[in-house]
Write a structure and sequence with these properties.
With about 110 residues, this protein is α/β, with parallel strands linked by helices. It has helices at about 15-20, 35-45, 60-65, 90-100, and strands at about 5, 25-30, 50, 70-75, 75-85, 85, 90, 105-110. The protein is globular and about 40 Å long.
């Protein structure tokens, strides 16, 4: 069984203490709003990383990572996306991905519309 470290919203800052928490992980999954390409590069040097971009991420990051990831581990289908909406009212992109791929696990941020 793999150990996954899950991050999001680093917004160009990664506290050094985070490495201590993630050192026992096999992979790091970043759910968007990475901030700068330097954060992505730092994480890649530390562990295998899978990431999606968030709404604050620039063209450099968007060239390196996708809007969403669909991962398959053992018998699980995992969907990672930065902004999905608020359950059960997911945004159109997320709703279509869920309908098409039927993930067992959805990792996302939601937005609240007031």
């Amino acid at each position: 069984m793999k150990r996954i470290g899950l991050l999001s919203d680093t917004h160009s800052h990664l506290d050094e203490r985070v490495k201590n928490h993630l050192k026992g992980c096999d992979e790091i999954w970043h759910a968007g709003d990475i901030g700068t390409i330097k954060i992505l590069e730092l994480l890649e040097k530390f562990k295998k990383i899978r990431a999606v971009y968030g709404n604050i991420d620039n063209h450099q990051i968007r060239k390196e990572v996708n809007e969403f990831l669909l991962l398959k581990y053992e018998k699980l289908v995992i969907l990672i996306i930065h902004i999905a909406g608020k359950p059960p009212k997911y945004n159109k992109i997320t709703h279509n991905l869920i309908k098409k791929h039927k993930p067992n696990i959805l990792i996302y941020l939601h937005t609240i519309n007031i």
